[in-house]
From TrEMBL, chains A, B:
Family: Belongs to the GPI family.
Keywords, alphabetical: Cytoplasm, Gluconeogenesis, Glycolysis, Isomerase
Gene: pgi
Name of this chain's protein: Probable glucose-6-phosphate isomerase
This protein's GO CC annotations: cytosol
Annotated metabolic or biological route of this protein: Carbohydrate biosynthesis; gluconeogenesis; Carbohydrate degradation; glycolysis; D-glyceraldehyde 3-phosphate and glycerone phosphate from D-glucose: step 2/4
Function as written in the Swiss-Prot or TrEMBL entry: Catalyzes the reversible isomerization of glucose-6-phosphate to fructose-6-phosphate.
Organism expressing this protein natively: Halogeometricum rufum
Length: 430, 430
């Protein structure tokens, strides 16, 4: 991963090189904290050890019973789905088993997916550390029932990824299901490079070793200076810009294969850093498409944004045929990849010309190695940002309130949060 | 469309009912401006007349030659794709012709799509008002070439939606292609209810009349008071909250079928209102999925957000099977729809409990009528917001700079913007 901060130096907001040099002392201190946390495999920091602690052989062995299914359906939500989805979106080829994600409880969507699948040729991957996540368990009960109705033995088509105890662990033991363990100390949003994120990649036949090697390479570049580590350069600059008013981080990859990466990043960034009144709101975008949508706002709207432009420097290209259409001859003889790169650089310059900060992030290619670098790099950037901001990066206290309210509303216990729902203030216009 | 502002009154930022009453005088004046613009079919305002001016018979007739294709590929970008994509995402059933959108110039993505399609059973819908949009024309040249290579007569499988003159109009006349006209005075991001948005819906067999009836119904509720018009209630409250610090608008539908609606809204809001240093950044979210991702930030992060929660009040439901799994008996006997609604209300209350403003928007169902109401309502809300803010709602000056730079980079002329690209400041960490 390469990070270019040049277009964030003399912008509004902006961070001067001198400011970054002063900040580098805090980066050095934060790096020591991070390294100590990694050495003790403390909660959260343990995720940064995954390139060494993940066991690709064990993951491959666990999914080995499922030889070339038509489809693999991951039933999980949040961090239990986004890492795997990012990898399958980035790496899938048309001949791979199709990867689906049931990460919502929309009944029409669930029914439509189940009606589409040949369940006897489908593998179901249930992911929940606790084994009690309401959305995931509800969907699993529905999918299991649909398999039974279709005459498919669900115990032959299901594997679970869960903690050492709980409902799903018990189920795996009772029915002898293949299973994987969610590693200790790894929060869901940091689990892409663990069993949670890698099992679907294994079923699809992607190269787990190259993924982990890319991550390991990025890890080896963590050091006590933001000027020596691309991950820390990104994390420190984002933090400095947020402090100076860039409360929105528009994540804009120039690659359809990285569209899901922006979703994954949005969870990582929002759930890790959005606390104590701090944090940077991730806005998911896609280049070049959003040049015809969001760019007007980024360039001419409030100066509360950092725009992060991500691209691979290599990709399979495709020529644009020659044409005699008026005014379009410049396109003929060029290629779609050249057009996309020109758009990327034009957007960068367009923002820089009016002083909107933007950062360039590049990987060599959207392949296993590149994704390993990118995901690990962004995780390390996030952890550094959290250290600098002094927030509790690895917790998510604000999501619990709503869970208790929803459970109370469904009669799953007596929760005072549920009472607040019925006391809602109304001002209805219809 | 029903709008409930109750949870935005006593929040931070928040707008009191008394403030809304004072603002209502400005709403009345803005409504007069809007009605005058509509009466004269002025640029932009003309879009609010589409429920009456769009001609569903003409649209159906234009696509009638393409009887039940396997797929329809729309080649267009920005407003030339998002409206149609929102309708097909919201309305498609498994047996409908599959709708694809080539709204990016990623060569790998284009190649993958072309390899997947049976081109002889595919209809290509090329959409560009000017006929010179670089991304669209490049993709069209590639698709046309691929059809020829596959032995398919592209002139039999292509229709165009374009202006009264230009490249695509000339092409349609030369090859006798079915064609539709982009109506005058309708900017791309306001064109969902015109030929631009409705042609794919017609091919898929959706009910254009019901779509327009829903929009007409919403139009009939525009009045000189925000307390009488759901669209104006949403637009005025968003404006008032933005003025008070809610510079981000998190658009969070609780329906997979509305995921694309959030993309469409993001363009409408960003490109119309993001100018003169003003505007509200749309952040696309999806309920309940993003409760496990963005909710932590919305509840505990910076107080610069309005969260808009959208749902249909009716949908096909699916029961959750009974279970003896520990602690989950409360789910059995409930349904996915009930769980989703409980999550919706819990999120609302969770934000309200800590004073984060949120607005509830409801339609009866994600069907033609409901989408007609919702799209028209949000367009009218946007136009009102623009009037109140005093911005030029219907222009997009900031996107032009980048287009000239990209064109210059590809050798399509001498543009000073292209020079700025090579003068980029660098601070690379690798």
């Amino acid at each position: 991963m390469r990070v270019d901060l040049g277009n964030a130096l003399s912008t509004t907001p902006g961070v001067s090189e001198a400011s970054l040099e002063r900040l580098d002392e805090q980066v050095a201190a934060a790096h020591e904290t991070i390294e100590a946390g990694r050495a003790d495999a403390e909660h959260g920091y343990a995720a940064l050890n995954l390139p060494d602690t993940a066991d690709p052989d064990a993951i491959r062995a666990a999914v080995e019973p499922f030889d070339s299914p038509d489809a693999v359906v991951t039933v999980g939500i949040g961090g239990s789905a986004l890492g795997a989805a990012t990898l399958s979106a980035g790496l899938s080829e048309p001949d791979d088993p199709e990867a689906y994600y049931l990460d919502n409880v929309d009944p029409e969507h669930v029914t439509r997916l189940l009606d589409t699948l040949s369940l006897s040729d489908t593998v179901v991957n249930v992911v929940s550390r606790s084994g009690t996540t309401a959305e995931t368990l509800a969907n699993f009960l529905v999918v299991r029932d649909a398999m039974t109705d279709a005459g498919v033995d669900w115990t032959e088509r299901t594997f679970v990824t869960t903690g050492e105890s709980g409902n799903l662990r018990g189920l795996a033991e009772k029915h002898d299901l293949p299973s994987l363990s969610v590693p200790d100390g790894v929060p869901g949003r940091f689990s892409a490079l663990s069993t949670v994120g890698l099992a679907v990649a294994a079923i699809q036949g992607h190269d787990l070793d190259a993924l982990l090697a890319g991550a390991r390479d990025e890890a080896s570049r963590l050091s006590g200076s933001l000027f020596e580590s691309p991950a820390y350069a990104y994390g420190a600059a984002s933090y400095a810009l947020a402090n100076r008013g860039a409360l929105t981080n528009a994540m804009m990859p120039y690659s359809e294969d990285l569209e899901y990466f922006a979703e994954w990043f949005a969870q990582l960034w929002a759930e890790s850093l959005g606390k104590d009144g701090l944090g940077q709101t991730p806005a998911r975008a896609l280049g070049a498409t959003d040049q015809h949508s969001q760019l007007q706002l980024y360039r001419a709207g409030p100066r509360d944004k950092l725009v992060t432009l991500v691209r691979p420097t290599e990709r399979a290209d495709r020529d644009i045929p020659e044409t005699d259409l008026e005014g379009l001859s410049y396109l003929g003889g060029s290629s779609l990849g050249e057009l996309l790169d020109a758009e990327f650089e034009a957007t960068e310059a367009s923002l820089a010309a009016v002083g909107v900060p933007n950062v360039r992030v590049e990987i060599d290619a959207v392949d296993e190695r590149g994704l390993g670098e990118l995901l690990y790099g962004m995780e390390a950037a996030c952890v550094l940002y959290g250290e600098l901001a002094g927030v509790s990066t690895f917790t998510q206290p604000a999501v619990e309130w709503g869970k208790r309210a929803a459970r109370g509303l469904l009669g799953g216990g007596d929760f005072e949060e549920a009472d607040a729902v019925s006391e809602k203030t109304r001002l209805v216009v219809e």
